[in-house]
Amino acid sequence: IDATGQTDVESLEFNFVNGRVFPKNIQLSSLDYAGEYLERLPNALMSADSQIENSTLQLLSQRVQAANTLVLIIDVERYHNNEPLEIEPYFDILDVASDKDVLLVATKCDILAEEFRDERALEAHQYFDEFCEYVNDTLVQNNQTVRTLVQDTSGSEIYPVYYQTTTDENGERVPMRDRDGNVMTIGFDELLKEMG
User: Fold this and answer.
1) Angle at Cα 174 formed by Cα 170 and Cα 179, nearest 5°?
2) What confidence score (pLDDT) does residue 24 get?
3) What does the DSSP assignment read for 124-164?
4) Cα–Cα distance measured from residue 33 to residue 56, given in angstroms and rounded to the nearest whole number
5) Measured between alpha carbons, how far is 144 from 150 in angstroms, rounded to an integer?
6) What would the DSSP string read from start to end of 156-192?
7) What pLDDT sits at residue 14?
8) What pLDDT is stored for residue 33 in this prediction?
9) Which of 109, 128, 140, 184 has the largest CB neighbor count within 10 A?
């Protein structure tokens, strides 16, 4: 899946029911936007709407201010490739939006699922609690910025999510599909339960 284009903003929304005895309707809405805006978002959050010249940045600021919960993404592919995680703006966002609940989500964790299988001879999707602990330990112990982010969010747990993947004939990592053609997702149900 390609990165979001610099001028693209996708509004993603859905509802789900959480709980059986006392079901609760939960609305989840988010914006998918180009990472280039992340650095500018803290300043926009501290500015009046009329002072924000970029309409996309103004929309992002409004949505963060209206949010109950901030979901901060940690890209495991970047971690794995020893690339900068580019999550430093999260600290300024957290300072400005200190009244928000925060969830830390590690995406593309199929990479760590393979390491988990190699190191422990366990399938991450079958031993998900152990895999969550593995992801948290791996990211916190091996990356100072992630360690500080976890500390700044009162020891928040990092929730791993991923598509089960395989390698195609061109050597590209592609999502696996079940017999009905659906992408096989891992960790998203647990994340939704936490949000509910």
Assistant:
1) 120
2) 83
3) TTTSHHHHHHHHHHHHHHH-HHHHHHHHHTTSPPEEE-EE-
4) 9
5) 10
6) PPEEE-EE-EEE-TTS-EEE-B-TTS-B-EESHHHHH
7) 82
8) 82
9) 109
Q: Between β-strands 101-107 and 69-75, what pairing exists: parallel, antiparallel or unpaired?
A: parallel
Rounded CA-CA distance 191/196 in Å is 9
- pTM flag (> 0.85): yes
Tell me, what amino acid is at 167? T
Following DSSP, what letter does each residue of 37-98 receive, concatenated?
GGGGHHHHHTS-GGG---HHHHHHHHHHHH-SEEEEEEEHHHHHTT-----THHHHHHHHTT
Give CA separation, 11 vs 15, 33, 73, 94, 182, in Å.
Answer: 14, 9, 17, 22, 22
Identify the pLDDT of residue 113. Answer: 96
Q: Are 7 and 34 in contact (CB under 8 A)?
A: yes
Contact 8, 34 (CB under 8 A): yes
Contact 51, 61 (CB under 8 A): no
d(CA 57, CA 102): 21
Q: Is 111 exposed, middle or buried (0-12, 13-18, 19+ CB in 10 A)?
A: middle
